[in-house]
């Protein structure tokens, strides 16, 4: 998979930075959550358009608004 644009947000939703990285999906039951590496840690990737982990409802447009939420001490 090619590198995708991901917004890095703090807990309050404030934009910290924008990163470009490769993502991967893991199969957990009927869901396929997306992950990326941020500061060496596996981090859950989400989409502002909807639940990207649901393979039956997600659309390709979900990739246009990806973000991760990090803790203050990350």
Write a concise synopsis of the structure shown.
With 74 residues, the protein is mostly beta strands.
Describe this structure in words.
- By secondary structure, this protein is mainly beta.
- The chain has one domain (4-69).
- It has no helices and six strands.
- It has strands at residues 4-9, 15-21, 24-25, 34-38, 41-47, 66-69.
- The chain has a six-stranded mixed β-sheet, with no helix packed on it.
Strand content: 35-45%
Number of helices: 0
- How many discrete domains? 1
The helical percent reads under 10%
State the end-to-end distance.
Answer: 26 Å
Structural class: mainly beta
The H-and-E topology, N to C, reads as EEEEEE
Tertiary shape: globular
Sheet with most strands: strand arrangement:
2-1-6-5-4-3
The averaged pLDDT comes out at 91
Question: How do the strands and helices of this protein lay out in sequence?
Answer:
Layout: E1 4-9, E2 15-21, E3 24-25, E4 34-38, E5 41-47, E6 66-69
Parallel strand pairs: 1-6
Antiparallel strand pairs: 1-2, 3-4, 4-5, 5-6
């Amino acid at each position: 998979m090619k590198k995708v644009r991901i917004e890095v947000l703090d807990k309050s939703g404030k934009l910290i930075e924008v990163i470009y990285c490769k993502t991967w999906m893991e199969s957990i039951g009927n869901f396929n959550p997306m992950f990326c590496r941020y500061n060496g840690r596996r981090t859950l990737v989400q989409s502002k358009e909807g639940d990207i982990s649901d393979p039956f409802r997600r659309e390709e447009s979900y990739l246009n608004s990806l973000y991760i939420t990090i803790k203050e001490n990350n």
